[in-house]
Amino acid sequence: MSSALLSYAGWAFLPNLVSGWVQSIYYGITIRAGDPKPQPGTPRYQKHRRRIQIIVVISYLLYTLYEADYIIRQDGDFYQLLVVSPDVEEKAVKSRFRRLAALHHPDKISTEDAFAHSAAEANFVALKTAQDTLCDPVKRFAYDRFGPDMLRWQHCKTIRDYLVTGMQTSALPLYAGSVIFLIALSFTNYLQYGKFWRYLAFISLFILEFHTVTRPYFSPLLTKIFNPVLGALAAHPPLLPFQLIILARKATFTLFIALTQIGNLFPQPASATSNSSPFDEQVLARLEGNAFKNEEEAQRLLTLDMMPFVGDKPATKELQARIKEWLVNNTIRSDPEVRDAMGRVIARRRANAPPGAR
C-alpha cells in the first residue's frame, strides 16, 4: 500500500522536476557555448518543454506499470509457491505438496535456531494453505479471480458466495467511487482534456474485470496474448486473473493522471458563454470580410491622396502637422464629456454676463 501511495504521489512533482532537468541537459548538448538559450515563457521554450514533458510522462507511466508487475512477481502466488502451472490438476498438486513438505518440514530444522525454525513453520503453513486452496475447486476458482483476499471469506461455501463477496468488497467500492468522481468532474471545467478517453478506459476496465471474474475459464486476453508474450520476452511467470485485474486497475488510474499531466501542457479552449447559431457565424464572417475590404480601400485612397507630396519633405511635414492638429481638435470636440463641459462653461458665462451681452 505504501509503495502504491508513493507511486501516485510521485505524479505530483516528478514529471515537472525531471522535465526541467532534461530540458537543461538538452540545451547544454544542442546549444553551443555563447549562443543564447530559449528563455522561459518564449514560444520555443514552451514547445521544447511540452515535448520533453510528454516523453517524461509516458516514460513514468511505463515505469509505474513495470513497478506494479514487479511487486506482483515479488508477492508470488500459490502456483509459484508449489512450482506448478496454473492448469495443473488436483493429483499433481497433492504430489507436489508431499514432495515439498518432505523437503521443508519444520521437524528437519533444529529448535535451537528459533528464527530458522519459525521460518520453516511459516513456509510449511503456506504450502499447506496453497495445497488446500488449489485442491478445492470452489476455493481455487475464487483464488484465481480474487487472490489471497478470499482466504478471509470463511463464510463463503459456493462459487456464487465468493463472487458476491468479492464484488461487494473489492469491485463495488472502487467503481461506485469512480462513478461519483467522474460525475462530479462533468459539472466542472476541471480535467476536461482527455475526458472521452477516461470514460472509455473506465468502461473497458469494468467490462474486462466483470468478464474475467465471472467466466469459468481464464480470459483469452491472458491465455492468448499476455502470458505468451511475457513468456517469450522474459522469464515471466504466467499471470493469473486477479493479477491481470491489478495491472489493469493500475494502468487505468495512472492513465487518468497521465492525461491530466499532458492536458495541462496545452491551452484549453474557452467555453462558449452564449449559444451561437450558424446564421450568426455567417453574418460575423461576412462583416469581417467587409471590414477587411474597407481597410484595403481606405489604404489605397490614402496612398493616392499622398502622391502629390511624395519627395517634398517640407510639404509632407506641414501636412502631417495639420492632420495631427485636426485629429486632436476633432477628437476633443467629438468627445461627449468635453462637449458637455464646454456647454456648461458657456452657459455659466452667459448667466453672469450683462443682459445686452448675452
Write the layout of secondary structure elements.
Blueprint: H1 2-10, H2 14-30, H3 43-75, H4 78-82, H5 90-104, H6 114-135, H7 137-146, H8 159-186, H9 195-214, H10 220-233, H11 241-263, H12 278-305, H13 313-334, H14 336-352
Helix pairs in contact: 2-3, 3-11, 5-6, 6-7, 7-8, 7-11, 8-9, 9-11
Describe the protein.
The chain is mainly alpha-helical. The chain has helices at 2-10, 14-30, 43-75, 78-82, 90-104, 114-135, 137-146, 159-186, 195-214, 220-233, 241-263, 278-305, 313-334, 336-352.
Cα distance, first to last residue?
94 Å
User: What class do helices, strands and sheet pairing give?
Assistant: mainly alpha
Task: Calculate the mean pLDDT score and round it.
Answer: 81
Helix percent reads over 70%
The main sheet comes to: none
Structure described in brief:
The chain has 358 residues and is an all-alpha fold. The chain has helices at residues 2-10, 14-30, 43-75, 78-82, 90-104, 114-135, 137-146, 159-186, 195-214, 220-233, 241-263, 278-305, 313-334, 336-352.
